[in-house]
Protein: Holliday junction branch migration complex subunit RuvA
Amino acid sequence: MIALLTGKLAYKSPEFIILDVNGVGYQVHIPFSTYYTLPVEGGALSLQIHTSVKEDAINLYGFRTQQEKELFQLLIGVSGVGPKLATGILSNSEPSELADSLVNGNLARLSAIPGIGKKTAERLVLELKEKMKKLGLAQPQAGGTTAPAKQEIRDDVLSALINLGYKEAVVQKALAELKVTEDATVELVLKQALKILMK
Structure:
C-alpha cells in the first residue's frame, strides 16, 4: 500500500499530476486544495498518498498535508461517498471551510457542491461533525506557477469544473463574468469561478 511519494513533478493539471519517482511516473489524482500548492513542473514534490484498490483498477490520491489526507479518508468513510466525490468535495472547499461547514451544519453550503444532495449533506454532518472538531486544519499555502495564455487558462478551468460535475453552459456563464488578466493563473481563475458557482 503506497502511503507517501517523493519525487519530481513531471506534469500537473487540476485533475491529476504525474510524479516522477526515480524514473517511474505515478499518476496521482488530486483535489484543487492540493493543486493550488504545487510547485512548477520539474520541481521537487512530496505527497501523502491514499491508495484506492478496486477489482479493475488501483488509483492513487495525493495530498500535500497529512490533515488533507485524513479529511479525505473521513469523507470516503461516509456511506455513499467514494474517492471521486470526496476529491470533488475537497476541490469545492478549502479544508478549513469544509470543516467549518460540517461543524456548523451548513447544509446549504454542502448541498451546493456537485454530487451532494440534501440527504448526503445531512449524512456528512451527522457522521463527521464531531470528528471535524478534533481535526485541526491549516489553510493551504499558495504555490508557484507560470502564467499560461488566457485561453489555455479558460480551457483548463472549464475542463476541471465539468469534471467536477458542473454543466458546461453554467461554467461558461461563470467564466464570462470573470476578467482573466495577463498575470492570471489557473489556480486563481478556478477559485474565482468556484465563488461564482457557489453563490
Summary: The chain has a mean pLDDT of 84. The chain has three domains: 4-63, 66-134, 150-197.
